[in-house]
# Entry
Amino acid sequence: MAIKKGDFVEVDFTGSVKGAEVFDTTLKSVAEKENLDTKNIKPFALAVGFEMLPKGFDSDLIGKEVGKDYSVDIMPENAFGTRNKELVKMVPTKLFLEQRIRPERGMQLSLDGQVVKIVSVSGGRTLVDFNGPLAGKEIVYQYKVNRMITDEKEKIDSIQDFFFRRRFDSEIKQDKVIFKVPKEFEQYINIFSDKFKEMLGKEIGIEIVELEQKK
# Structure
């Protein structure tokens, strides 16, 4: 059966810059070989057609079949975006030194939660590239669709993993999904409620529960 938009599937994949390094994989053996972090590595579950993967990868899944191996080359505009020269900026070197960072050419570091690259350092000025490290690069994904996901609870959990990076208790009542969350997390459900409804085809409700206190 060919995969179509709206199907939930589980895939294994390895992504690499064309002709260069592997930057992501769901396969532990590949991660170990490439010296990538193997913590929590596992197959990726997603709803097809909602860009839970890069656009070019997501669209390539449509029409494919379970159990077969595939490969897709993706141009930058359908992968991680093209490079924007306006995102290469001159920054006072003292801002780095104040954070006990001595910038050096080629260094990659996290700045305000964003990975940036040091292009050059000259006196009191540092040229910083704020483009993502994969921006402007042609990407190759080798992948296999392991299975179709039909269990409603598993579908809900896959979306929670993607949007929330955590799982709240949930309950399915007819055509409605009830999330059981502490009051302080209610806003997160509300923000993504329309997206959940579009992907699951069910209305979203919220039940406020007490936050469990850890001893």
Remarks:
- The mean pLDDT is 93.
- Residues 186-200 form the longest helix (15 residues).
